Amino acid sequence: MKSCKPCNPPAAAGARAAPPCTGGAAECAGTCAGAGRLESAARRRLAANARERRRMQGLNTAFDRLRRVVPQWGQDKKLSKYETLQMALSYIMALTRILAEAERFGSERDWVNLHCEHFGRDHYLPFAGAKLPGESEPYGQRLFGFQPESFQMAS
DNA sequence: TAGGCCATCTGGTCCT
DNA sequence: AGGACCAGATGGCCTA
C-alpha cells in the first residue's frame, strides 16, 4: 500500500463523517498504475477496516455493559473508557473487601450492624446511595474510594 | 479556542 | 493467506 501513497487521500483517516470506506486504498487501486495486483490488496484492506470497525464496536458494547453495572454516583455525564476501567477496578476491590469482611463476621446481622448502625435502625438506606447529614459523599462512594478527577496514570 | 474523548484508517505483528 | 489484535495518526465533536 505504501507505493500508492500519493493518490491516497490524506482525509482517509478520521472518516467518521464519511463512513465506511470512501477513497483510501480502494480508490487508490482503481486509479494507480498496476491496479490489478493492487485490487486484491485494496479489497483485503477494506475487509480489514470493516473487521476492525466491528471489533471496536464490540469493544464499545462491552464498555457500555460495564458502565451499566459500575456505580456512577449520580454523574449525568457518562464515564469515559478510562474512567470506566478505573471505576470497575475500585468497585471490584471494594466488593472483594466487603466479602472478606462478611466472612470474618459470623453472621449477616453482625456485618450489617458494622456498616449500617450509624444510619439508624428505622431508616437504613442502601449503602451505595446513603449519605449522612454533613457528609460530602455517599457512604458507598467513600467505601470505593474512586474519584474521577483524582486518579493518576499508572507508571 | 484549547483540550479531552472518540471513531476510523492504517501498517505491523502474531497466530491459526 | 487471512484474521485478530495493537498502536499511531488524524480529524470531528463537545465543553470549559
From TrEMBL:
Protein localization: Cell projection, Axon; Nucleus; Perikaryon
Annotated SMART domains: HLH (SM00353)
Pfam families: HLH
Cellular component aspect of the GO annotation: axon; cytosol; nucleoplasm; nucleus; perikaryon
Lipid biosynthesis listed as a keyword: no
Keyword check for Transcription regulation: yes
GO biological process, one term: circadian rhythm
Primary location group: other
GO MF terms held by the record: DNA-binding transcription factor activity, RNA polymerase II-specific; E-box binding; protein dimerization activity
Keywords in alphabetical order: Cell projection, Developmental protein, Differentiation, DNA-binding, Neurogenesis, Nucleus, Transcription, Transcription regulation
Annotated protein name in UniProt: Atonal bHLH transcription factor 7
Gene source species: Sus scrofa (Pig)
UniProt lineage: Eukaryota, Metazoa, Chordata, Craniata, Vertebrata
